[in-house]
Amino acid sequence: MMEIIIQYLLPSFVLFAFGIVILFWSFITSNNRIFSLFSIASGIISFILLLLNYGANYKYFDIFTFDTAGTILSLLFVFLMVIISIATYRFNFSHPEIFYSILLFSTGSMVLAVFSNNLISIFVTFEASSIATYILAAYPKSRKSLEASMKFFVIGALSSAMIIFGISFYYISTNSFSLGLTSNSSTYILSLIFLLVGFGFKLSLFPFHSWAIDTYNGARSPVSALLSTSSKLMALAIMIRIFLFTFDISFSNYVQIFFIIISILTMTYGNVTALVQKDVKRMLAYSSVANAGYLSLIFTLTGENALSLALAAILVFSIAYILMKGGSFITMENLEEKGTTLNDIAGLGKKRPLLAFSFTVLLFSLAGIPPTLGFMGKYFLFLSLIEGGLWWLAIIAVLNSAISVYYYFRVVMYLYWKESNVEVEKNRHIDYAVFSLAILTLAVGIVIPIIFNSLYNLWGGLP
């Protein structure tokens, strides 16, 4: 039994071990590139170990539930960590060993969090990842990044308090921390409310989103990529495991109406506000809020067929989201010193054709233009709404997606049809990292219909 649990926890242990090795290795050298290579190596090893466990399902004493869907999310988290390590290969800041070790600790905690099936293990792993991201948001200790980190920390502390209250009321009503138990008591409903608010902050749902804009905009771009993708999907995975598979909210009309309102407000606010942004990085931050609205659509569905389709669609959209949003924020890294406004990126198509092409593909995917993976993710997600009888909500989601086309295409116009005298320093590591994400967005978008049926059959295993 112990051998089995070690087998499944090994990918996280590898990340933790390499994080510790990097800290001790810093006594020998402070070479940033060595630490980056350590991070890449640990990510590759962890990725291989996750692949070896792919498809196997195992439950360990109601603490961890190892499933295929959780493995897919974990693979995405580790893959993005490797991309961030490549993109930051030429980072120049003090104590780089802390940055990379914290990055590994955060990713390892995320992997454990999506497999957690107990509120205590969920809270511990979730907070371990969150505390690590508070530190990452502060790098490289500029006034802007420190402000972003402080705002993130204050809101994170508030949401953690809400989660603790929810866990407490859950234990009072069920006498257990294990998920899957139900109760008719008022404290049980109260636990739902507190958990919903706590994780709503983490997912940056409206009106709990305000911290996300300043944090994503103030943090270094690779860190923003991690916060807006992996951290958000980790929160979503936990919410699905708690609310769909514990509270059965899909059968509650009141909760369904609540999430319909929240998802519409989140989508609309994020997209409309992004329309008026002149700073590309801030625009991407607001579009992240809009995407949180798309992700929350899964909680509006009832019925087994619609819900199973939605869960499979969320898997597809999660793959698309971490590729296209992560890549878009990493693109901004090379523009941080000169600025990230529309005028600053003007003419990038001539100065950095590979980076501009890759960024364009990612923006097309965010806008939902076929044959990108972003289009397939939205297609299956909106199709699940129609299957669930919420065709009018699907129309609202499509209209919101249409709004986003304007501000994404405006960026593309500045990339190729505007001129600028601003010089942009070349960084081939960022070019290759973003290009790999763009190619994957296209390639997986083309083949995803072939494997969608298998994802559809996995809906019961989604965390």
Q: What would you note in describing this structure?
A:
With 463 residues, the chain is mainly alpha-helical. The protein has a domain at 312-463. The chain contains 18 helices and 2 strands. The protein has helices spanning 2-25, 32-52, 68-87, 96-115, 119-137, 143-174, 186-203, 210-218, 221-244, 253-275, 280-295, 304-333, 342-345, 348-351, 353-367, 373-387, 391-417, 428-456, and strands at residues 58-60, 64-66. The protein has a two-stranded antiparallel ribbon. Strand 1 and strand 2 form a beta hairpin. Helix 10 (253-275) runs parallel beside helix 17 (391-417) and helix 16 runs antiparallel to helix 17 (391-417). The longest helix has 32 residues, at 143-174. It is globular. The mean pLDDT is 80.
Beta-strand percentage range: under 5%
Percentage of helical residues? over 70%
The main β sheet shows up as:
2 strands, antiparallel
- Low-pLDDT runs: none
Q: How many strand segments?
A: 2
Mean pLDDT: 80
What kind of oligomer do you see?
single chain
Span from first to last CA? 22 Å
Structural class: mainly alpha
User: Given the C-alpha coordinates, what overall shape results?
Assistant: globular
Q: How large is the count of helical segments?
A: 18
Query: Numbering strands along the chain, what is their spatial order in the largest sheet?
Result: 1-2
| SSE arrangement, N to C | HHEEHHHHHHHHHHHHHHHH
Round the Cα radius of gyration to an integer and report it: 21 Å
